Amino acid sequence: MKHIPLLLLLCWLPRDLSAQTADSLSYVKGRFYAQRAEGIKTPDKLTQARGSLELGMLFLLDGAADSCLFYGLEALSLAESIGNDSIASAASQLVGNQYKLQKKFPRAHYYLNMGINYSRKTQYESLQLHALGNKSMLYSWENKPDSAIPLQLQILSVFEKQKDTLGITKVHMVLAGCYSTKKDTATARKHLELFEAGLRMKKYRAQLTCDLMIVAGIIHWELRDIAVAQDYLLKAIPIARSLDSKYMLQRAYDTLHAIEVKKKDFKQALAYLDTAYQYRDSIAGEKSIRHAQQLEIQFRTAQKDKELAENKLALKQQNLLIAILGILVLLGLIVYGYFRHKQQLLKGKLINLRQENKLGLMEAAIQGEERERGRIAKDLHDGLAGMLAAVKMHFESLQYDHPALKDSADFEQVNLLLNNASGEVRKTAHNLMPEMLTESGLYEALRKYCNSISISRFRIDYYTIGDLTRFPPNFEISVYRIVQELLHNIVKHAQATYAMVQLSQTKETLTITVEDNGVGMDGQAGGDGMGMESLRNRVAAMNGTICWEKNQRDETSVYIEFNLKIITHAGS
Predict the structure, then answer these.
(1) How are strands ordered across the β-sheet holding 544-550?
(2) For the packed helices 45-62 and 25-41, what is the interaxial angle rounded to 10 degrees?
(3) Concatenated DSSP letters for 373-424?
(4) pLDDT band for position 555 (50/70/90)?
(5) Which of 37, 312, 320, 505 is the most buried (most CB within 10 A)?
(6) pLDDT at residue 76 tops 90
(7) At what angle do helices 327-379 and 409-432 cross, to 10 degrees?
(8) Does the pLDDT at position 271 exceed 60?
(9) Sign (positive/negative) of CA torsion 320, 322, 323, 326?
(10) pLDDT digits (tens, 9 = 90+) for 2-33
(11) What residues contact 110, with CB distance under 8 A and at least 6 apart?
């Protein structure tokens, strides 16, 4: 059930953190920023990891995906470096849940499985139960209730032994949603009654009570208990307003809109829809609800058409088999299927070979370009720079043969121009092939580059996270050029005054984040230099991924990820 998952995300937040979600998130984030700043000043990585994890959780509640992933991955990296399995499990679950909200399900499965594995190394049974619960909720988001239900039943048995009223209540809530998805109305109502009994049994915090009431309303709506659903939602709305919880308000008004449409009260339905739209805009920026609904209708229509077409084809094949050839036609279909499958495999291999050839040619072109840059840089440094130095030396010696030149303004002007020309040649040679990259590696070369172009009206902050290592030379120069081009585009097109470059390395991945406060680019625009499409191709040639995202203020974030196992293997 797609409406339920936020509740289980909240259930594994620390008590002191989830209790303050009723306060201003900006105030709480400010407090954690201050704590994190103090932690960074000390070598205590445990304090840093806890601060990053708590900030990531707050950004998850605030709907800030990039910041949530940044702090979650930072906490994971720090926890792995000090061997703290508890924080590593919580951070993995945080990152997995954020990818779930973005509907990037393969990545969500990867990090949630990591969270389960780390939790099993600890002595905390509650952490293990939460890890299994988050995995179950991912199955619910994928509309796989048959995979989610066994995990929830396993959790329920433990909660019943512990006599954990809140835990039992939440499990019955999730099971009611799962059985509703399976259209098993009787079982769904049984768990719904147990869920509501737990809700009435104990007085919870306002945040949790409001969320449980909204979920109860949604489940009743899915079971077509319209009056009960509407009553729950209308009672929850004043509580959500007092908490300033835009996400819960948006969910409540969305469901009320669907109820009024069912009742054919379109005027009230439109009012609820407009209110939900306002809250959705404040959370996730401008999105078109009507367009999403049209896409959903088109998808469902296409699914129905596909099912009808498949049914007609199956009926036609059955009649043909019975009426004409029987077993011979069946054998013919088997042979046909075999060769068709073989043809598809060959076609797939051909496509892969073409793609690999394309990427190989691109990589060869990139390497050839870097070799040419190196040759030109060497020629400039050893040739033109040397000649300018010789000219400058002979020119300066003229003042000894002709003392009158010492007081000549023209002499000083020419000498200054020679000095500037020598400096420009050295600067150009360095940009073509930076010596720092060869001597100290990617991280220090990028630090030096960012410092060199950072000025008072355009400041660049540069950060690195994790145990930084060296990479194969071709990989380092390619990453250097990619970051250099991104910063060049920001300076030339974004009208920005601030940018941030972040490199984070874990055992398996290298991630690069480049953010700015300019007018924003969507990753589709062209422009000179390397260009957006060329950047995508270059990252793909290195077996990496790149994506552009914009926030509500139209500011741009670029996220790049490389698999270090592939890079290390290729380098060796």
Answers:
(1) 459-465, 498-505, 509-516, 556-563, 544-550
(2) 160
(3) HHHHHHHIIIIIHHHHHHHHHHHHHHHHH-GGGGG-HHHHHHHHHHHHHHHH
(4) confident
(5) 505
(6) yes
(7) 150
(8) yes
(9) positive
(10) 333 333 333 334 333 433 343 445 555 565 55
(11) 96
Q: Hey, which bits of 393-534 come out as E strands?
A: 459-465, 498-505, 509-516
Residue keyed to tokens 């998130």: 25
Contact call for residues 243 and 21 (beta carbons, < 8 A): yes
**Cα dihedral across residues 335, 341, 344, 348: positive or negative:** negative
Which candidate, 209, 196, 214, places its Cα nearest to that of 252? 214
Q: Cβ(541)–Cβ(359) under 8 Å?
A: yes
CB atoms within 10 A of CB 40: 14
Residues in the chain, total: 572
Span 174-213, pLDDT tens digits: 888 888 888 888 998 898 888 888 888 877 788 888 888 8
Tokens of 112: 């949630």
Closest CA to 246 of 217, 296, 285: 285
User: What values do phi and psi take at 124, rounded to 5?
Assistant: -95, 105
Provide the token pair at 95.
């990152």
Cα 216 from chain centroid?
A: 30
Report the DSSP pairing between strands 459-465 and 556-563: unpaired
pLDDT at 383 over 70: no
Question: Per DSSP, what are the bridge partners of residue 510?
Answer: 505, 562
Phi, psi of 556, deg, nearest 5: -105, 140
Which among 540, 546, 551 is positioned nearest to 518, based on CA atoms? 551
From the number of C-beta atoms within 10 Å of its C-beta (0-12, 13-18, 19+), residue 333 rates as middle
CA 154 – CA 260 distance, rounded (Å): 38
Longest Cα separation, the chain: 115
SS3 507: coil
What angle (nearest 5°) sits at the alpha carbon of residue 54, between those of residues 53 and 59?
95
Distance CA 124, CA 93 (A): 15
Rounded-to-integer distance, Cα 12 and Cα 526, Å: 44
| Three-state SS at 510 | strand
Give the CA distances from residue 543 to residues 82, 334, 480, 559, 572, in Å, rounded to whole numbers and listed in that order.
29, 38, 16, 14, 16
Residue 36 tokens read as 């994190």
- Whole-number Å distance between alpha carbons of 350 and 361: 16
Tokens matching residue 505:
């390395």
Would you state the structure tokens that stand for residue 155, as one six-digit string? 């959790």
* Residues contacting 59, CB < 8 A, separation 6+: 29, 65, 67, 68, 71
Radius of gyration over alpha carbons of the chain, in Å? 31
Region class of 546: left (phi > 0), else alpha (psi between -120 and 50), else beta: beta
Distance CA 365, CA 320 (A): 56
Nearest to 481 by CA among 547, 528, 432, 522: 432
Among 473, 372, 388, 375, CA closest to 426:
388
Residue 556's H or E segment, with its range, is: strand 556-563
Q: Which of 551, 489, 487, 505 is nearest to 66 (CA)?
A: 551
